[in-house]
Design goal:
Chain lengths: 311, 256
Protein backbone atom coordinates (compact mmCIF):
# COMPACT_ATOMS: atom_id res chain seq x y z
CA UNK A 1 0.00 0.00 0.00
CA UNK A 2 2.82 2.34 0.95
CA UNK A 3 4.60 1.48 -2.26
CA UNK A 4 1.45 2.11 -4.24
CA UNK A 5 1.08 5.51 -2.61
CA UNK A 6 4.71 6.35 -3.36
CA UNK A 7 4.34 5.43 -6.99
CA UNK A 8 1.12 7.40 -7.26
CA UNK A 9 2.96 10.38 -5.81
CA UNK A 10 5.77 9.88 -8.32
CA UNK A 11 3.25 9.72 -11.11
CA UNK A 12 1.62 12.94 -9.93
CA UNK A 13 4.99 14.68 -9.63
CA UNK A 14 6.00 13.47 -13.05
CA UNK A 15 2.89 15.04 -14.47
CA UNK A 16 3.45 18.26 -12.55
CA UNK A 17 6.96 18.48 -13.91
CA UNK A 18 5.61 18.16 -17.43
CA UNK A 19 2.98 20.80 -16.82
CA UNK A 20 5.41 23.67 -16.21
CA UNK A 21 6.23 23.59 -19.95
CA UNK A 22 9.91 23.96 -19.27
CA UNK A 23 12.03 22.05 -21.77
CA UNK A 24 15.00 22.35 -19.37
CA UNK A 25 17.31 23.18 -22.26
CA UNK A 26 20.96 23.24 -21.43
CA UNK A 27 23.65 24.00 -23.99
CA UNK A 28 26.07 21.13 -24.55
CA UNK A 29 29.51 22.31 -25.71
CA UNK A 30 30.51 20.70 -29.02
CA UNK A 31 33.64 22.73 -29.79
CA UNK A 32 34.96 26.14 -28.84
CA UNK A 33 32.07 28.64 -29.30
CA UNK A 34 29.83 25.86 -30.63
CA UNK A 35 26.93 24.42 -28.61
CA UNK A 36 24.01 22.07 -29.18
CA UNK A 37 20.72 21.34 -27.43
CA UNK A 38 20.29 17.58 -27.66
CA UNK A 39 16.70 16.34 -27.76
CA UNK A 40 15.34 12.96 -26.76
CA UNK A 41 15.38 10.05 -29.20
CA UNK A 42 11.60 9.69 -28.95
CA UNK A 43 8.52 10.53 -30.95
CA UNK A 44 6.49 13.68 -30.21
CA UNK A 45 4.30 13.40 -27.13
CA UNK A 46 2.70 15.49 -24.40
CA UNK A 47 5.51 14.73 -21.94
CA UNK A 48 8.52 15.68 -24.09
CA UNK A 49 6.57 18.53 -25.70
CA UNK A 50 8.35 17.87 -28.98
CA UNK A 51 11.87 18.17 -27.58
CA UNK A 52 13.02 15.30 -29.75
CA UNK A 53 15.25 17.34 -32.02
CA UNK A 54 18.72 18.83 -31.91
CA UNK A 55 19.25 22.55 -32.31
CA UNK A 56 22.55 24.40 -32.09
CA UNK A 57 24.29 27.74 -32.04
CA UNK A 58 27.66 29.21 -32.86
CA UNK A 59 29.00 32.22 -30.99
CA UNK A 60 30.58 34.25 -33.80
CA UNK A 61 32.74 37.38 -33.25
CA UNK A 62 29.86 39.80 -33.79
CA UNK A 63 26.80 37.71 -33.00
CA UNK A 64 25.18 34.32 -32.67
CA UNK A 65 24.29 31.93 -35.50
CA UNK A 66 21.34 29.66 -34.62
CA UNK A 67 20.86 26.37 -36.43
CA UNK A 68 17.22 25.22 -36.28
CA UNK A 69 14.74 26.65 -33.82
CA UNK A 70 12.88 23.64 -32.39
CA UNK A 71 9.27 22.42 -32.36
CA UNK A 72 7.34 25.27 -30.71
CA UNK A 73 7.21 28.92 -29.71
CA UNK A 74 8.02 27.97 -26.11
CA UNK A 75 11.05 25.97 -27.26
CA UNK A 76 12.30 28.88 -29.35
CA UNK A 77 11.88 31.30 -26.44
CA UNK A 78 13.56 28.98 -23.95
CA UNK A 79 16.33 28.25 -26.42
CA UNK A 80 16.98 31.95 -26.88
CA UNK A 81 17.12 32.40 -23.09
CA UNK A 82 19.53 29.48 -22.80
CA UNK A 83 21.75 31.04 -25.47
CA UNK A 84 21.61 34.27 -23.44
CA UNK A 85 23.06 32.42 -20.46
CA UNK A 86 26.12 31.54 -22.59
CA UNK A 87 26.68 34.82 -24.41
CA UNK A 88 25.22 38.32 -24.42
CA UNK A 89 25.90 38.75 -28.15
CA UNK A 90 22.80 39.30 -30.27
CA UNK A 91 21.44 36.65 -32.60
CA UNK A 92 22.64 37.48 -36.12
CA UNK A 93 21.01 34.74 -38.19
CA UNK A 94 18.75 31.73 -37.75
CA UNK A 95 19.15 28.90 -40.24
CA UNK A 96 16.40 26.31 -40.86
CA UNK A 97 18.04 23.15 -42.21
CA UNK A 98 14.82 21.81 -43.77
CA UNK A 99 11.04 22.21 -43.72
CA UNK A 100 10.12 19.75 -40.96
CA UNK A 101 8.20 21.31 -38.06
CA UNK A 102 10.51 20.25 -35.21
CA UNK A 103 13.24 22.31 -36.91
CA UNK A 104 11.42 25.57 -37.61
CA UNK A 105 8.38 26.08 -35.35
CA UNK A 106 10.56 27.94 -32.83
CA UNK A 107 11.16 30.65 -35.48
CA UNK A 108 8.57 32.95 -33.87
CA UNK A 109 10.99 33.56 -31.00
CA UNK A 110 13.43 34.94 -33.58
CA UNK A 111 10.98 37.04 -35.59
CA UNK A 112 13.18 40.13 -35.04
CA UNK A 113 16.25 38.66 -36.77
CA UNK A 114 16.87 37.30 -40.28
CA UNK A 115 15.83 33.65 -40.74
CA UNK A 116 17.48 31.88 -43.66
CA UNK A 117 16.73 28.66 -45.53
CA UNK A 118 17.15 27.12 -48.97
CA UNK A 119 14.56 28.30 -51.53
CA UNK A 120 12.68 24.97 -51.53
CA UNK A 121 12.65 24.90 -47.73
CA UNK A 122 11.06 28.38 -47.71
CA UNK A 123 8.43 27.13 -50.17
CA UNK A 124 7.79 24.00 -48.10
CA UNK A 125 7.35 25.97 -44.87
CA UNK A 126 4.98 28.40 -46.55
CA UNK A 127 2.82 25.69 -48.13
CA UNK A 128 2.89 22.91 -45.50
CA UNK A 129 3.82 24.77 -42.31
CA UNK A 130 0.30 25.17 -40.96
CA UNK A 131 -0.61 21.53 -41.53
CA UNK A 132 2.62 20.47 -39.78
CA UNK A 133 1.90 22.79 -36.84
CA UNK A 134 -1.62 21.41 -36.52
CA UNK A 135 -0.19 17.90 -36.36
CA UNK A 136 2.23 18.88 -33.58
CA UNK A 137 -0.60 20.48 -31.58
CA UNK A 138 -2.31 17.11 -31.79
CA UNK A 139 0.78 15.18 -30.64
CA UNK A 140 2.41 17.55 -28.15
CA UNK A 141 -0.67 19.32 -26.78
CA UNK A 142 -0.36 22.49 -24.69
CA UNK A 143 3.40 22.71 -25.15
CA UNK A 144 2.51 24.16 -28.55
CA UNK A 145 0.39 26.99 -27.15
CA UNK A 146 0.77 30.18 -29.14
CA UNK A 147 2.90 28.54 -31.85
CA UNK A 148 2.38 29.89 -35.35
CA UNK A 149 4.39 29.52 -38.52
CA UNK A 150 7.07 32.17 -38.94
CA UNK A 151 8.44 31.57 -42.41
CA UNK A 152 12.11 32.24 -43.20
CA UNK A 153 12.85 35.72 -44.54
CA UNK A 154 16.04 35.10 -46.44
CA UNK A 155 17.06 32.60 -49.12
CA UNK A 156 20.35 30.82 -48.59
CA UNK A 157 22.44 29.23 -51.29
CA UNK A 158 25.20 26.66 -51.36
CA UNK A 159 28.66 28.08 -50.90
CA UNK A 160 30.67 30.20 -48.49
CA UNK A 161 28.73 32.53 -46.23
CA UNK A 162 30.23 34.89 -43.70
CA UNK A 163 27.92 35.66 -40.79
CA UNK A 164 28.84 37.99 -37.92
CA UNK A 165 32.53 37.51 -38.68
CA UNK A 166 32.41 33.71 -38.88
CA UNK A 167 32.89 31.71 -42.07
CA UNK A 168 30.32 28.99 -42.83
CA UNK A 169 30.22 26.56 -45.71
CA UNK A 170 26.67 25.82 -46.79
CA UNK A 171 26.11 22.53 -48.59
CA UNK A 172 22.76 22.11 -50.34
CA UNK A 173 21.70 18.46 -50.44
CA UNK A 174 18.39 16.60 -50.55
CA UNK A 175 16.94 13.17 -49.84
CA UNK A 176 15.50 13.45 -46.34
CA UNK A 177 13.34 16.21 -47.81
CA UNK A 178 13.46 18.04 -51.13
CA UNK A 179 16.00 20.49 -49.67
CA UNK A 180 18.39 19.65 -46.84
CA UNK A 181 20.93 22.26 -45.87
CA UNK A 182 24.14 21.10 -44.23
CA UNK A 183 26.24 23.70 -42.39
CA UNK A 184 29.98 23.35 -41.90
CA UNK A 185 31.47 25.73 -39.36
CA UNK A 186 34.89 26.15 -40.97
CA UNK A 187 36.79 27.38 -37.87
CA UNK A 188 35.65 24.61 -35.51
CA UNK A 189 35.25 21.83 -38.09
CA UNK A 190 31.77 21.02 -36.78
CA UNK A 191 29.37 19.61 -39.37
CA UNK A 192 25.66 20.24 -38.77
CA UNK A 193 24.05 17.47 -40.79
CA UNK A 194 20.39 18.19 -40.06
CA UNK A 195 18.09 15.23 -40.55
CA UNK A 196 20.28 13.64 -43.18
CA UNK A 197 21.87 12.02 -40.10
CA UNK A 198 20.09 10.21 -37.28
CA UNK A 199 22.03 8.80 -34.35
CA UNK A 200 20.52 6.09 -32.16
CA UNK A 201 17.03 6.76 -33.48
CA UNK A 202 15.27 5.38 -36.54
CA UNK A 203 15.13 7.90 -39.41
CA UNK A 204 11.85 9.47 -40.54
CA UNK A 205 10.83 9.35 -44.19
CA UNK A 206 7.63 11.32 -44.89
CA UNK A 207 9.29 13.33 -47.68
CA UNK A 208 12.24 11.09 -48.40
CA UNK A 209 13.83 10.26 -51.72
CA UNK A 210 15.97 7.37 -50.52
CA UNK A 211 18.33 7.26 -53.53
CA UNK A 212 19.08 10.96 -53.13
CA UNK A 213 19.46 10.55 -49.39
CA UNK A 214 22.05 7.79 -49.85
CA UNK A 215 23.97 10.01 -52.27
CA UNK A 216 23.85 12.85 -49.72
CA UNK A 217 25.24 10.53 -47.04
CA UNK A 218 28.20 9.74 -49.30
CA UNK A 219 28.88 13.46 -49.73
CA UNK A 220 28.70 13.97 -45.98
CA UNK A 221 30.95 11.06 -45.22
CA UNK A 222 33.55 12.51 -47.58
CA UNK A 223 33.38 15.75 -45.58
CA UNK A 224 34.07 13.88 -42.35
CA UNK A 225 37.32 12.62 -43.91
CA UNK A 226 38.57 16.20 -44.40
CA UNK A 227 41.43 17.05 -42.06
CA UNK A 228 39.50 19.93 -40.47
CA UNK A 229 36.51 17.83 -39.41
CA UNK A 230 36.02 17.55 -35.64
CA UNK A 231 32.38 16.72 -34.86
CA UNK A 232 29.07 15.81 -36.42
CA UNK A 233 25.80 17.18 -35.03
CA UNK A 234 22.96 14.94 -36.30
CA UNK A 235 19.36 16.18 -36.48
CA UNK A 236 18.42 13.64 -33.82
CA UNK A 237 20.63 11.83 -31.29
CA UNK A 238 24.04 12.38 -29.76
CA UNK A 239 26.93 14.36 -31.26
CA UNK A 240 29.81 12.21 -32.50
CA UNK A 241 33.44 12.78 -33.42
CA UNK A 242 33.14 10.39 -36.36
CA UNK A 243 30.82 9.41 -39.21
CA UNK A 244 28.92 6.76 -37.22
CA UNK A 245 25.48 8.44 -37.53
CA UNK A 246 25.92 8.59 -41.31
CA UNK A 247 26.71 4.88 -41.46
CA UNK A 248 23.78 4.08 -39.15
CA UNK A 249 21.38 6.11 -41.27
CA UNK A 250 22.69 4.48 -44.43
CA UNK A 251 22.32 0.97 -42.96
CA UNK A 252 18.68 1.66 -42.04
CA UNK A 253 17.84 3.13 -45.45
CA UNK A 254 19.53 0.27 -47.30
CA UNK A 255 17.68 -2.31 -45.24
CA UNK A 256 14.38 -0.48 -45.66
CA UNK A 257 14.74 -0.17 -49.44
CA UNK A 258 15.76 -3.79 -49.86
CA UNK A 259 12.92 -5.00 -47.62
CA UNK A 260 10.28 -3.04 -49.50
CA UNK A 261 11.63 -4.03 -52.90
CA UNK A 262 11.82 -7.74 -52.02
CA UNK A 263 8.35 -7.67 -50.46
CA UNK A 264 6.85 -6.06 -53.55
CA UNK A 265 8.53 -8.63 -55.80
CA UNK A 266 7.31 -11.47 -53.58
CA UNK A 267 3.71 -10.29 -53.87
CA UNK A 268 3.25 -9.00 -50.32
CA UNK A 269 0.80 -6.22 -49.67
CA UNK A 270 1.11 -3.40 -47.17
CA UNK A 271 -0.64 -5.25 -44.35
CA UNK A 272 1.67 -8.28 -44.80
CA UNK A 273 4.66 -5.96 -44.45
CA UNK A 274 3.24 -4.12 -41.44
CA UNK A 275 2.80 -7.43 -39.62
CA UNK A 276 6.48 -8.34 -39.93
CA UNK A 277 8.82 -8.03 -36.93
CA UNK A 278 11.97 -5.92 -37.17
CA UNK A 279 15.23 -7.78 -37.80
CA UNK A 280 17.46 -8.24 -34.72
CA UNK A 281 19.91 -5.48 -35.70
CA UNK A 282 17.15 -2.85 -35.43
CA UNK A 283 14.92 -4.39 -32.76
CA UNK A 284 16.41 -2.25 -29.97
CA UNK A 285 16.73 0.98 -31.95
CA UNK A 286 14.51 3.70 -30.42
CA UNK A 287 11.21 4.27 -32.29
CA UNK A 288 12.26 1.73 -34.95
CA UNK A 289 8.92 -0.12 -34.90
CA UNK A 290 6.83 3.02 -35.38
CA UNK A 291 9.16 4.56 -37.98
CA UNK A 292 9.22 1.28 -39.91
CA UNK A 293 5.41 1.28 -40.04
CA UNK A 294 5.35 4.91 -41.13
CA UNK A 295 7.99 4.28 -43.78
CA UNK A 296 6.02 1.36 -45.22
CA UNK A 297 3.16 3.81 -45.72
CA UNK A 298 5.42 6.40 -47.34
CA UNK A 299 7.64 4.24 -49.50
CA UNK A 300 5.89 0.96 -50.30
CA UNK A 301 3.50 2.30 -52.97
CA UNK A 302 6.44 3.23 -55.23
CA UNK A 303 8.20 -0.12 -54.65
CA UNK A 304 4.95 -1.91 -55.38
CA UNK A 305 4.32 0.05 -58.56
CA UNK A 306 7.81 -0.79 -59.82
CA UNK A 307 7.25 -4.51 -59.12
CA UNK A 308 3.81 -4.57 -60.76
CA UNK A 309 5.10 -2.73 -63.82
CA UNK A 310 7.86 -5.33 -64.10
CA UNK A 311 10.73 -2.98 -63.30
CA UNK B 1 -36.87 -10.39 -37.05
CA UNK B 2 -35.89 -13.67 -35.44
CA UNK B 3 -32.69 -15.50 -36.25
CA UNK B 4 -32.99 -18.64 -38.32
CA UNK B 5 -30.55 -20.47 -36.04
CA UNK B 6 -29.34 -20.01 -32.52
CA UNK B 7 -25.71 -18.97 -32.05
CA UNK B 8 -24.93 -22.31 -30.44
CA UNK B 9 -26.33 -24.15 -33.43
CA UNK B 10 -24.31 -22.02 -35.86
CA UNK B 11 -21.12 -22.63 -33.91
CA UNK B 12 -21.82 -26.34 -33.77
CA UNK B 13 -22.70 -26.59 -37.44
CA UNK B 14 -19.53 -24.73 -38.42
CA UNK B 15 -17.34 -26.84 -36.12
CA UNK B 16 -15.85 -23.64 -34.73
CA UNK B 17 -13.10 -23.69 -32.11
CA UNK B 18 -14.50 -22.77 -28.68
CA UNK B 19 -12.69 -19.39 -28.59
CA UNK B 20 -14.22 -18.32 -31.90
CA UNK B 21 -17.62 -19.68 -30.97
CA UNK B 22 -17.48 -17.65 -27.75
CA UNK B 23 -16.79 -14.53 -29.81
CA UNK B 24 -19.93 -14.92 -31.89
CA UNK B 25 -22.43 -12.25 -30.90
CA UNK B 26 -25.92 -11.43 -32.07
CA UNK B 27 -26.04 -7.92 -30.70
CA UNK B 28 -23.91 -5.32 -28.99
CA UNK B 29 -21.38 -3.94 -31.49
CA UNK B 30 -17.92 -5.23 -30.41
CA UNK B 31 -16.41 -2.01 -31.81
CA UNK B 32 -18.83 0.08 -29.75
CA UNK B 33 -19.50 2.61 -32.49
CA UNK B 34 -22.25 5.22 -32.12
CA UNK B 35 -23.05 4.76 -35.79
CA UNK B 36 -23.52 0.99 -35.77
CA UNK B 37 -27.32 1.17 -35.65
CA UNK B 38 -27.40 3.38 -38.69
CA UNK B 39 -24.88 1.18 -40.54
CA UNK B 40 -26.94 -1.93 -39.85
CA UNK B 41 -30.07 -0.20 -41.10
CA UNK B 42 -28.35 1.05 -44.28
CA UNK B 43 -26.48 -2.06 -45.32
CA UNK B 44 -28.06 -5.03 -43.61
CA UNK B 45 -31.68 -3.89 -43.38
CA UNK B 46 -33.88 -6.41 -41.69
CA UNK B 47 -31.62 -9.42 -42.14
CA UNK B 48 -30.13 -11.38 -39.25
CA UNK B 49 -26.69 -10.23 -38.11
CA UNK B 50 -23.92 -12.13 -36.41
CA UNK B 51 -20.64 -10.56 -35.24
CA UNK B 52 -18.33 -13.30 -36.42
CA UNK B 53 -14.57 -13.70 -35.82
CA UNK B 54 -14.30 -15.65 -39.06
CA UNK B 55 -14.66 -12.35 -40.89
CA UNK B 56 -11.20 -10.84 -40.54
CA UNK B 57 -10.61 -7.21 -41.35
CA UNK B 58 -6.91 -6.36 -41.17
CA UNK B 59 -5.81 -2.73 -41.09
CA UNK B 60 -3.23 -0.77 -39.10
CA UNK B 61 -4.59 0.58 -35.80
CA UNK B 62 -3.01 3.92 -36.69
CA UNK B 63 -2.96 4.98 -40.31
CA UNK B 64 0.12 6.93 -41.29
CA UNK B 65 -1.38 8.15 -44.54
CA UNK B 66 -5.18 8.66 -44.44
CA UNK B 67 -5.23 8.71 -48.26
CA UNK B 68 -3.85 5.14 -48.47
CA UNK B 69 -5.00 3.00 -45.56
CA UNK B 70 -4.36 -0.66 -46.32
CA UNK B 71 -7.31 -2.97 -45.63
CA UNK B 72 -7.40 -6.74 -46.09
CA UNK B 73 -10.67 -8.64 -45.82
CA UNK B 74 -10.28 -12.36 -45.27
CA UNK B 75 -13.51 -14.33 -44.90
CA UNK B 76 -12.11 -17.56 -46.27
CA UNK B 77 -12.94 -19.41 -43.02
CA UNK B 78 -16.63 -18.88 -43.69
CA UNK B 79 -18.42 -21.19 -46.16
CA UNK B 80 -21.20 -20.31 -48.59
CA UNK B 81 -20.43 -16.63 -49.16
CA UNK B 82 -22.60 -14.69 -51.58
CA UNK B 83 -21.50 -11.10 -51.08
CA UNK B 84 -19.14 -8.96 -49.00
CA UNK B 85 -19.79 -5.27 -48.30
CA UNK B 86 -17.09 -3.07 -46.80
CA UNK B 87 -17.94 0.20 -45.05
CA UNK B 88 -16.41 2.73 -42.64
CA UNK B 89 -18.90 4.09 -40.08
CA UNK B 90 -17.52 7.63 -39.76
CA UNK B 91 -16.44 8.31 -43.32
CA UNK B 92 -18.30 11.07 -45.21
CA UNK B 93 -18.96 8.37 -47.83
CA UNK B 94 -19.36 5.20 -45.81
CA UNK B 95 -19.56 2.55 -48.51
CA UNK B 96 -16.09 1.51 -49.68
CA UNK B 97 -16.71 -1.48 -51.92
CA UNK B 98 -18.64 -4.71 -52.45
CA UNK B 99 -17.28 -7.95 -53.77
CA UNK B 100 -18.80 -11.18 -54.94
CA UNK B 101 -16.28 -14.05 -54.63
CA UNK B 102 -17.74 -16.35 -57.22
CA UNK B 103 -14.88 -18.62 -58.25
CA UNK B 104 -12.20 -17.22 -55.92
CA UNK B 105 -11.68 -17.35 -52.16
CA UNK B 106 -13.32 -14.51 -50.20
CA UNK B 107 -10.11 -12.56 -49.81
CA UNK B 108 -9.46 -9.02 -51.01
CA UNK B 109 -6.79 -6.46 -50.18
CA UNK B 110 -7.20 -2.80 -51.15
CA UNK B 111 -6.54 0.71 -49.84
CA UNK B 112 -9.01 3.27 -48.67
CA UNK B 113 -9.25 7.01 -47.93
CA UNK B 114 -10.42 7.78 -44.40
CA UNK B 115 -11.48 11.18 -43.17
CA UNK B 116 -11.28 10.46 -39.45
CA UNK B 117 -10.87 7.62 -36.97
CA UNK B 118 -13.49 5.00 -37.73
CA UNK B 119 -14.37 1.33 -37.64
CA UNK B 120 -13.72 -0.36 -40.97
CA UNK B 121 -16.05 -3.32 -41.38
CA UNK B 122 -16.83 -6.17 -43.68
CA UNK B 123 -20.32 -7.65 -43.66
CA UNK B 124 -20.46 -11.03 -45.33
CA UNK B 125 -23.79 -12.46 -46.51
CA UNK B 126 -23.95 -16.22 -46.64
CA UNK B 127 -26.44 -18.31 -48.63
CA UNK B 128 -28.75 -18.64 -45.61
CA UNK B 129 -29.31 -14.86 -45.57
CA UNK B 130 -27.25 -14.16 -42.42
CA UNK B 131 -24.83 -11.20 -42.38
CA UNK B 132 -21.56 -12.12 -40.66
CA UNK B 133 -19.81 -8.94 -39.53
CA UNK B 134 -16.16 -8.34 -38.71
CA UNK B 135 -14.18 -5.14 -38.35
CA UNK B 136 -11.44 -3.12 -36.75
CA UNK B 137 -10.89 0.46 -35.59
CA UNK B 138 -8.45 2.60 -37.56
CA UNK B 139 -7.17 5.80 -35.96
CA UNK B 140 -6.20 8.49 -38.40
CA UNK B 141 -5.33 12.16 -38.46
CA UNK B 142 -7.93 12.71 -41.14
CA UNK B 143 -8.12 14.57 -44.38
CA UNK B 144 -8.26 11.44 -46.54
CA UNK B 145 -11.53 12.18 -48.27
CA UNK B 146 -11.44 15.94 -48.55
CA UNK B 147 -7.83 16.22 -49.66
CA UNK B 148 -7.42 16.47 -53.42
CA UNK B 149 -6.01 13.49 -55.30
CA UNK B 150 -2.42 13.82 -56.50
CA UNK B 151 -3.83 13.49 -60.01
CA UNK B 152 -5.82 16.69 -59.53
CA UNK B 153 -2.51 18.55 -59.37
CA UNK B 154 -0.94 16.95 -62.44
CA UNK B 155 -2.27 16.30 -65.95
CA UNK B 156 -0.01 13.24 -66.30
CA UNK B 157 -2.65 10.69 -65.21
CA UNK B 158 -4.94 11.53 -68.15
CA UNK B 159 -2.53 9.82 -70.54
CA UNK B 160 -2.47 6.70 -68.37
CA UNK B 161 -6.08 6.62 -67.15
CA UNK B 162 -7.28 3.08 -66.48
CA UNK B 163 -3.89 1.63 -67.28
CA UNK B 164 -3.60 -1.70 -65.44
CA UNK B 165 -0.35 -3.26 -64.26
CA UNK B 166 -0.43 -6.57 -62.47
CA UNK B 167 1.23 -9.85 -61.63
CA UNK B 168 0.37 -13.35 -60.54
CA UNK B 169 2.58 -15.43 -58.27
CA UNK B 170 2.59 -19.13 -59.04
CA UNK B 171 5.29 -20.18 -56.58
CA UNK B 172 6.78 -19.15 -53.28
CA UNK B 173 4.97 -18.26 -50.07
CA UNK B 174 2.38 -16.21 -51.95
CA UNK B 175 1.57 -18.73 -54.67
CA UNK B 176 -1.91 -18.16 -56.02
CA UNK B 177 -1.83 -14.46 -55.33
CA UNK B 178 -2.81 -11.80 -57.86
CA UNK B 179 -1.98 -8.13 -57.43
CA UNK B 180 -2.90 -5.27 -59.72
CA UNK B 181 -2.80 -1.50 -59.83
CA UNK B 182 -5.08 0.70 -61.89
CA UNK B 183 -4.25 4.30 -62.74
CA UNK B 184 -7.26 6.34 -61.67
CA UNK B 185 -7.71 9.53 -59.62
CA UNK B 186 -10.72 8.09 -57.71
CA UNK B 187 -11.99 11.60 -56.99
CA UNK B 188 -14.61 11.61 -54.25
CA UNK B 189 -16.61 14.63 -55.42
CA UNK B 190 -16.18 16.16 -51.95
CA UNK B 191 -13.76 18.78 -53.19
CA UNK B 192 -15.32 21.87 -54.73
CA UNK B 193 -14.90 21.92 -58.48
CA UNK B 194 -13.83 18.26 -58.78
CA UNK B 195 -16.78 15.96 -59.54
CA UNK B 196 -16.83 12.35 -58.34
CA UNK B 197 -14.80 10.29 -60.78
CA UNK B 198 -14.08 6.73 -59.78
CA UNK B 199 -13.91 3.13 -60.93
CA UNK B 200 -17.29 1.42 -60.46
CA UNK B 201 -16.79 -2.17 -61.38
CA UNK B 202 -14.02 -4.70 -61.93
CA UNK B 203 -14.53 -8.27 -63.12
CA UNK B 204 -11.89 -10.94 -62.81
CA UNK B 205 -12.20 -13.93 -65.11
CA UNK B 206 -9.97 -16.91 -65.83
CA UNK B 207 -8.68 -18.07 -69.21
CA UNK B 208 -11.85 -20.08 -69.82
CA UNK B 209 -14.00 -17.01 -69.23
CA UNK B 210 -15.24 -18.17 -65.84
CA UNK B 211 -15.75 -15.29 -63.44
CA UNK B 212 -13.56 -15.46 -60.35
CA UNK B 213 -14.72 -12.30 -58.63
CA UNK B 214 -16.78 -9.19 -59.24
CA UNK B 215 -15.87 -6.03 -57.34
CA UNK B 216 -17.96 -2.85 -57.10
CA UNK B 217 -15.88 0.08 -55.97
CA UNK B 218 -16.97 3.45 -54.56
CA UNK B 219 -15.40 6.85 -53.94
CA UNK B 220 -13.41 6.01 -50.75
CA UNK B 221 -11.18 3.49 -52.55
CA UNK B 222 -7.72 5.10 -52.81
CA UNK B 223 -6.26 6.84 -55.83
CA UNK B 224 -4.46 4.47 -58.23
CA UNK B 225 -6.08 1.55 -56.46
CA UNK B 226 -4.12 -1.59 -55.76
CA UNK B 227 -5.94 -4.90 -55.23
CA UNK B 228 -4.69 -8.18 -53.83
CA UNK B 229 -6.65 -11.36 -54.59
CA UNK B 230 -5.99 -14.95 -53.77
CA UNK B 231 -6.77 -17.23 -56.67
CA UNK B 232 -5.81 -20.34 -54.79
CA UNK B 233 -4.18 -22.10 -57.70
CA UNK B 234 -2.81 -20.12 -60.62
CA UNK B 235 -4.28 -21.60 -63.77
CA UNK B 236 -3.30 -19.56 -66.77
CA UNK B 237 -3.77 -15.85 -67.33
CA UNK B 238 -6.39 -13.76 -65.61
CA UNK B 239 -8.40 -11.00 -67.19
CA UNK B 240 -9.38 -7.85 -65.33
CA UNK B 241 -11.98 -5.66 -66.99
CA UNK B 242 -14.18 -2.89 -65.79
CA UNK B 243 -15.34 0.69 -66.09
CA UNK B 244 -15.49 3.97 -64.25
CA UNK B 245 -18.52 6.20 -63.63
CA UNK B 246 -17.76 8.21 -66.78
CA UNK B 247 -18.10 5.10 -68.92
CA UNK B 248 -14.38 4.66 -69.59
CA UNK B 249 -13.67 0.96 -70.05
CA UNK B 250 -10.55 -1.02 -69.32
CA UNK B 251 -9.44 -4.56 -69.94
CA UNK B 252 -6.10 -6.14 -69.10
CA UNK B 253 -4.62 -9.58 -69.19
CA UNK B 254 -2.42 -10.55 -66.28
CA UNK B 255 -0.08 -13.36 -67.24
CA UNK B 256 0.98 -15.98 -64.69
Amino acid sequence: MKRLFASLLLLACGQLAAQDFDYRLSATPVARDVYAFIGKTEDFDTVNGGNIVNTAFIVAPQGVIVIDSGPSLRYGQQMRQAIGRVTDKPVALVINTHHHPDHFLGNQAYADVPIGALADTRLGITSDGNAFAENLFRMSGDWMKGTEVQAPTRTLQAGELEVAGRKLRLIALDGHTGADLVVLDVVSGVLFAGDLAFNGRAPTTPHADVAHWLAALDRLEALTRDSGFTALVPGHGAVTRDAAPLRQTRAWLNWLTQTLRDAARDGLDMNDLLARPLPPQFAELPVAASEYRRSVGHLFPAAEQAALEGK
Amino acid sequence: MKYPLTIAAIALAALMPPAEAAALKENGDPLDSARWGEMAKTFLAGAPVLFDPRVKVIAPSTAENPMQVPVTVDATALPGIVEVVVFADFNPIVQVLRFFPEGAPAYLGFRVKLQQSTPVRAAVRTGDGVWHVGGTWVNTVGGGCTAPSAAAASPEWQKRLNEVSGRQWSEGPNAGRVRLRIVHPMDTGLIAGTPAFHIEEINFTDAAGKRLMRVQTYEPVSENPVFTLNRGVVDGPLEASGRDNNGNLFKARIAP
